[in-house]
Amino acid sequence: MKTHRSFCRAAGAAIAAVIMAGCSQSASASSTPGVEKTVIMQATDTHFLSDRLNDHGPLFQKFVAQGDGKDMEQSVQAAQALASQVLEEKPDVLVVSGDLTFNGEKASHEDFAKILASIEEEGVDVYVIPGNHDLDSTQAMSFSGEEYEPAESVSQEEFEEIYGDFGYSESDSRDPYSLSYAKKINDQIELIFLDANTPESPNRLKDGTLKWLQEQVDQANEEGLRIVSVTHQSLIEHNPLLSEGYTIANAEKALSILEQGDLIANLSGHLHTQNIAENEKGSLDLCPESLLDAPGRIATLTLEDHQANYQADPLDYIGFENAKELKEHQTDFFNQTSRDQMARRYEGNTQLEVLQDSFEKWNGAYFSGDLSGLSVEEAEKELWKSNGGFDGSYIESIFDQAGNQWIDREWTFQ
Ligand SMILES: [Fe+2]
Questions:
Q1: What global pTM score does this model have?
Q2: What is the model's pLDDT at position 32?
Q3: Could you tell me the domains of the chain?
Q4: For residue 57, which of 90, 93, 171, 289 sits 20 to 30 Å off, Cα-Cα?
């Protein structure tokens, strides 16, 4: 990343304050002209399940209660609420970075695309990329009463057709090897969407795609374009415990190519937790929370001059008469899922209730991206140490981050 900020971060701590002051000054006085105000909103992991496939009956309820906390019961309302929130803000573009559907159902893709069309009709350009749940899924199913049936999924070609208006038929360059593409959103900024979810090469960018990426970055440099890249799985590790499968296997290679350009940031997803990761070169990977995990954040990246401002706001269900109930349902469902996970894993443990209270508090705060109001007590540390296992390691990794938040950030770029 050819940013002045990267240079500043490499400077010694003793002179950091002086250098940083010089940084912001020289960035705004840089020989490269700054960018016009550009607002990019991002939602991810919307996991939309069409009501054509879902009677919200007993089997569906059982199925989602044993899930990971995303409120599938109201995935349709959440997508509609995303549309109303985006239209309230009226950004230049909306990016949806994969896992658009629950499990790749064709009907879900079709109905989700209709909601995206309602956003574009009001003048906001929408761009999407597939996630690991969206293509050729063997888990696509419909629910009815106590029964389920396999449902039709989509191929890469069908995905490209359904989302033609949301990237694929309007791109400036299409990668022939995957569903990656590039799109200039104005004379100064190019979005590069990288697809690491081809059925032949899951969680890895193909060699041909990396070659195509190099061409895009070279071209962007020639034209003096800044780059915002978009992936489903991240380009930088967010939590050492959640690395394999969460970060693209050959992410370092992709990032080293992107860093040859003026990369402002990578927008990712997949983790479902609101988080920001930074590498040693100062590159940023911004991951919004899944739209369906409470409070379901939507991120807004505002670029102006040489300044970037990132903010992730909760999903507000604007325009819904029962907005308060919908928000509460999302929170209560997430918290209950946390407690149920503990009940299943620590059945018979005399400290079950204390474990549930602790897990609900820390897991909820971590997903929402805000640990700023939390500190760890010795007794709680001991509790997880003595109970061990993956949950213990996971909660301890969150303890290490107590006091941090990843819901807003400001930085400068070249
Ligand atoms: Fe997801």
A1: 0.92
A2: 83
A3: 31-318 (3.60.21.10), 323-399 (no CATH)
A4: 289
